[in-house]
Structure prediction request, 292 residues.
Amino acid sequence: MSDATLTQRAMNVLVVDDSKSMRHLIGAVLRELGHRALTARDADAALQYFSEKRIDLVLVDVEMPGMDGFELTRALRERLANDWIPIVFLSSRQEAELIERGIEAGGDDYLTKPINPTVLRAKLVAMSRISNMRRDLLSAQAQLASYRNDPLTGVPGKTVLIEKLLRLWRDCRRDDQPVSLIRTDVMELEQINHTNGVDYGDRILVSIGHALIDNAPEGSVYGRIDGDEFIVCWPCALDDAQQWWDDHHDLFQARDVMADCEVKGTVLSMNAEQFDSLSDLLDVSAAQVSVA
Prediction:
């Protein structure tokens, strides 16, 4: 066996078969390849594993008492609608119609019994590669999301905020709609961090982020500019924006964190002059918002 095969990332492999000898055989091959073998004799036991562990691959017998392999696969695909896991069927039958039914049920591959250990090893190596690629993709997606969202507060970060603000600004200028913006910042955050510690100040920022996520006006653009400053911007008149801030001001005061925290809100009408001022703050050229 090659070094590349031996260094495949270990998977949690669920083997579902009513035959104890088959579970033992497949489990031995899995352990030989460095994977963790989890075994279940029926569909109910298999479903229970998904409440307890992360499963990377399922090997399931087609002919089982009670819920068969096809029915179990359909149940798993419905339960894991947003999470793809490879499923390989095991069966002594090789009819084309049966294989077609398995693929339609949500299966990915087929192994015929009696199981040939060499073929099983090859399938496991192939499925391990797919599992590794899936993990790497999910990791890359999570990393990309962390770049786009502020990792501390969960609201859009500066890069995304600029993109959305420019789009909103263009749309509203084109449609001749008023645009208003509220800038919030935490008064004396530097002193709060010095007195109570940075973790304490971070809790204030997280609280503000949650307030924005839960209460931002429909159709608004919001996010964290930097440090203690947040923005919420949407198509509305200045008076409406001021009324929204008056109505929601208390929600941004982080009272659950500390009683004497003060979050100041500045309400602006986004005319051209105000956008020039905002552009300086965001390091955005006003030329970027020109409308054809």
